[in-house]
Amino acid sequence: MKKEYIFVFLCLIVSLFLAGCHFAGTVIPENEWDFQGVVSSLDTPQKLVNYMSENFWIYTDPPEDYEPFLPEDFFYMSIGNCEDFAAFSSYVLDQHGYDVFSLSYMAISDKSKEIYEHTISVFKIADKKLNYITNLEAIDEEALFELLGPFNTIEEIISNEEKRIKRNVFLFGFTYLESVSEQVEPKSFEEAVNQLDTSSKILSYITRNFLYKEDREITALSPQQLFQTRKGDKFDFAVFISYLMDHHGYKAKLLSLECTESESLNGNDIIVLYYDTDEKLRFIAHHGKQFMGVFQTYDSLDDLIRDLEYVQSIITNSEVKFSRYGFLRAGTTNLMPTEWIPFF
Fold it and tell me: Burial code of 290-327, b = ≥16 C-beta within 10 A, e = fewer?
């Protein structure tokens, strides 16, 4: 009799594993390689975190030419970096109706001066608070994840990340996510201008609703034209951002910069200067496939440009030096300054 009970008990254990149940509380379909089936089963942030911790691995030493995977491709690979994790978790959360976006940042250590880059997945919950999912330090290449929140603002998230990683964040911004659907959809340009009243809202809206193109047009698009076409380059986006920031009283202007030693920037660059609510000078710049807002503030324009040279040198892996700069009115499509100021 006892042997029969033991046999039944063992059968129950085997059936649990065959049914695809995990002790962390995540239930996946019988076919564990059914991408859409798995996505459908991960209908809460905690289930998502549990699943990722159980099934994904992290690249501890990715190749230099490494490109992040699309969510479905990454699902089958099961190994990647923080960009892959953020894209996958953002996609899953979006499929379940969450207002979600990826947030990237760069930080520096006071002791080693090494640069640390990281991307997390941020989403809103019912009361409009912000939560986020991040991967933690890997243990033998096994990826671990944590669900953190709630927070009131993106700035609070950045401050929390500074404490978590024990580094100072100097840039943060938003990654273009074609796999995540629109959540903010103003019906008109005027409505967009009124709704997008902070740098964080503007950057999040652009990267989630507009397509980025590398090709440079002779004349920049006006803010209204970009809103209608939903496609532009970094110069078009800078014009759009400066217009909105200036409209909301941030004393914004465009700063055109010419480079002397960097082919990666095609000889010139453009950023948006503005004064935040604390009356401190900040800027917004485009880096690769991201728009980045500066978390720190500056006492002078010279300090800002020197820091931009440093950041651009790190990002492009080449020495960047600016030889001169010129100011432009916020929202203008004529991006040729009437006066150039030498910079040494």
Answer: bbbbbbeebeebeebbebbbebbbbbbeeebebebbbe
